[in-house]
Design a protein that fits this description.
Blueprint: H1 15-24, H2 31-40, H3 47-54, H4 62-72, H5 76-79
Helix pairs in contact: 2-3
Length: 85
């Protein structure tokens, strides 16, 4: 049993929510474009890191979580919600 896994076996709680919010943006934002937005906020992520976050293979730091919340104009609590939508 891994100590740092979410109840669904993922390495993060927010990955599914990040993906849903990214796809809900109009116009739709690619993983590469989201990585670019993160880099503008001083967070060094690339497209592959976004992909790993969204599928639960990568941990997310608190600094990254805060930047995602700013980009999506939501709260960190919303990103940590395991409910869809």
């Amino acid at each position: 049993m891994y100590k740092n896994r979410a109840s669904n076996g993922s390495n993060n709680i927010c990955g599914r929510r990040v993906r849903a919010l990214r796809l809900a943006l109009v116009p739709r934002v690619s993983q590469r474009a989201l990585a670019d937005l993160m880099q503008l906020r001083g967070i060094d992520l690339d497209k592959n890191a976004i992909q790993r976050i969204e599928c639960g293979k990568r941990f997310v730091t608190d600094i990254e979580l805060k930047a995602f919340a700013q980009i999506f104009r939501t709260t960190t609590d919303d990103l940590l919600s395991e409910e869809e939508g």
